[in-house]
Amino acid sequence: MRVVSLHRDVLVVTSALLQVNCVVVRGAIEPDAEAELGGVAGAGAGAETFVIDSPVLPDELDALPALLEQAHFPAPSGLLATHGDWDHLLGRLAFPGVALGCAESTAERLRASPGEAQRELRAFDKDLLIRRPRPLALGSVQALPVPGRCSVGDRELELHAAPGHTADGMAIVIGWAGVLVAGDYLSTVEPPTLNDGGDLDAYLATLKRLHPLVASAEHVVPGHGPVLDSGRALEVLEEHAAALTQAT
Ligand SMILES: [Zn+2]
């Protein structure tokens, strides 16, 4: 597992398996609001943390709480998933009591195929002889309106629809940090893929929607593989759009 800090409020944790990226984001709470909440005004320690997607290996998930603590990020009050593929849904194995939020489209997918993520996780673990201390329970999933906004501390995340790779999903802009969390798009280690429920036209429309977000971001975090700067991510976007258009 590799951990990189993109900004004082943003960490990227990359799993040793599948190079899945998990993004940890901290939103500050302004001193006044903090005092109202019972914190120490002006201490600046008040903040809220969300964890977006997840690493894959049990040891990596177990290490997440200590990692956040070391980085002086408060324990997460929310988990987010960019989409409903099992490899992005494992946050609750690290933080069992924390609610999972996702796009309405993802909540709908999880409702329509209960147990799918658990089945795929079990099959994956079986192949690789991975043992987990407890089964995955997604709990009550919170559906977020997309496009929309979601507060973390006194900051806001922007949520943008990102279907195509699958039928569901969202990309997340961490505006104050210049970070775009793209979901399973713009990867340099995985060609553009249509999974179950994926759709070519929706994929191309998502790339188009992501274009201005990529252009104005400083760092683009794909679902899998290296974090890209804006210029490189734009190249990848064009390459993927061209490859998919040719395929039709
Ligand atoms: Zn994935």
Overview features:
248 residues; alpha/beta; seven-stranded mixed β-sheet; six-stranded mixed β-sheet; globular; binds zinc ion
Describe it:
With 248 residues, the protein is an alpha/beta fold. It contains 7 helices and 13 strands. It has helices spanning 31-36, 58-70, 91-94, 104-112, 116-127, 200-215, 230-247; strands at 2-7, 10-14, 21-28, 47-52, 78-81, 100-103, 141-144, 148-152, 155-161, 170-174, 179-183, 219-222, 228-229. The chain has a 7-stranded mixed sheet. The termini are far apart. Zinc ion (ZN) binds at residues 85, 87-88, 184, 223-224.
Summarize the structure.
The chain has helices at 31-36, 58-70, 91-94, 104-112, 116-127, 200-215, 230-247; strands spanning 2-7, 10-14, 21-28, 47-52, 78-81, 100-103, 141-144, 148-152, 155-161, 170-174, 179-183, 219-222, 228-229.
